[in-house]
Design goal:
Elements: E1 8-9, H1 15-24, H2 30-39, H3 55-64, E2 65-66, E3 71-77, E4 83-88, E5 94-101, E6 106-109, E7 113-114, E8 132-133, H4 136-154, E9 160-163, H5 173-184, E10 196-200, H6 204-212, E11 218-222, H7 228-234, H8 243-257, E12 261-265, H9 275-285, E13 290-295, H10 310-322, E14 326-330
Parallel strand pairs: 1-2, 6-9, 9-10, 10-11, 11-12, 12-13, 13-14
Antiparallel strand pairs: 3-4, 4-5, 5-6, 7-8
Helix pairs in contact: 1-2, 4-5, 6-8, 9-10
The structure holds S-adenosyl-L-homocysteine (SAH).
Length: 349
């Protein structure tokens, strides 16, 4: 009889562990390779899909393991083509992922945690309690689901992945890196690391760790202010992780990886829209080679925060560009379905 309580999620096993399993059960180690391919490259959800295994082997696997998979329970499509998925995890918790199509690219925006612990004042996810970290397979599966939507709805492949969904990726570092390993490996999705970007509030010691680990993906930092008192007032993490600490970590990152950093920056009316703030950003930008994305604010409240005027954005643009810093204004996508940056909060429209 199958003891359901003893069955483990097979995707928690490494290829090596799976090989050991087959050897211990009197089978050939190469079976592990076959199973691994079914589990990752082909995203099999059922052992009976593994048709190159004998029925006996499949039954043996069924008696020891389950395959946990995410479920896209609700999909919403924006007028601009953006798709938002409500993704149910095996324990019933829900996260969101977003597909963002443009002419040249399709980007998947994925979540790394259920909820978030960081309490950034302008972000809807911050209002959800952090429940748990996502496992590597749960992050991977969000990408697979979006990849399938790319083919189904757009007839073109997924080109980029950003870790800008719910949660703070660097507070779930090992699982995020394990998911990225699968996404970039030939047994998985075989995507190029340079197409992946991890976005963080800027946890200095984790940026140093990433540099030491010589990661190959890109780094984006949600900066929003280069003045400590202002940044601390909107992003509590800054109180214990100052701009000076962040700057030192970024210098180390650049020295080790030679990779430019992207700063994400919202300009808000009355908060950081004057020349003094833009000058502070320029000074910060001189620490390491970088580019700046000025992102449009997506309102999540009753008006406490408001998008700055076009003149303020032009002032930032001009100052940065005239000093050689590549700067882009990023328009929101998927606002009508609460799929834009900072709006992910499991709210069904
Ligand atoms: N925790 C990570 C990733 C999730 S947030 C991080 O902080 O980078 C993804 C991006 O959306 C961040 O740059 C964040 O600052 C930004 N963001 C959050 N709320 C927003 C809002 N209401 N409008 C626009 N951008 C927002």
């Amino acid at each position: 009889m199958v003891d359901t309580f003893a069955r483990r999620d097979i995707r928690k096993l490494s290829l090596e562990e799976l090989k050991q399993f087959f050897i211990q059960h009197g089978d050939k180690a190469f079976r592990a390779q076959q199973v691994y391919e079914w589990l990752w490259r082909k995203s099999a959800k059922d052992f009976d899909q593994m048709t190159n295994l004998s029925l006996a082997t499949r039954d043996m696997l069924k008696s020891h393991f389950v395959i946990n998979f995410i479920r896209v329970d609700n999909m919403q499509r924006s007028a601009d083509g953006t798709i938002k998925n409500a993704v149910t995890l095996h324990d019933g918790l829900v996260v969101e992922s977003v597909l963002i199509p443009t002419e040249k690219r399709i980007t998947a925006c994925v979540s790394s945690q259920v909820g978030c612990s960081l309490a950034c004042k302008f972000c809807a996810t911050a209002r959800l309690k952090r429940m748990r970290n996502l496992d590597p397979d749960e992050i991977y599966d969000q990408v697979v689901a979006i990849q399938q939507q790319c083919e189904l709805f757009f007839g073109r492949p997924l080109t980029n992945i950003v870790f800008m969904g719910m949660g703070e990726p660097l507070l779930n570092y090992s699982n995020v890196v394990a998911a990225i390993d699968k996404i970039t490996s030939p047994e998985g999705l075989n995507m190029a690391s340079k197409r992946l970007t991890v976005s963080t509030v800027g946890i200095a010691k984790m940026i140093v760790k990433m540099a030491d680990d010589a990661v190959k993906f890109n780094l984006a930092v949600s900066l929003h202010s280069a003045l400590n008192h202002v940044r601390s007032s909107i992003m509590p993490i800054n109180e214990t992780n100052s701009l000076e600490d962040l700057g030192e970590a970024l210098k180390y990152w650049y020295k080790k990886t030679r990779k430019k950093v992207t700063y994400e920056y919202v300009v808000w009316k009355g908060l950081n829209d004057s020349e003094e703030h833009a000058q502070a950003l320029l000074k910060f930008c001189k620490l390491v080679p970088c580019k700046v994305n000025l992102i449009e604010y997506n309102p999540i409240d009753e008006g406490e925060f408001q998008q700055a005027s076009d003149e303020a954005l032009d002032m930032y643009m001009h100052l940065l560009e005239s000093n050689g810093i590549t700067t882009r204004i990023r328009k929101s996508r998927g606002k009508d379905i609460d799929a834009a940056c900072g709006q992910l909060a499991n709210k069904i429209n």
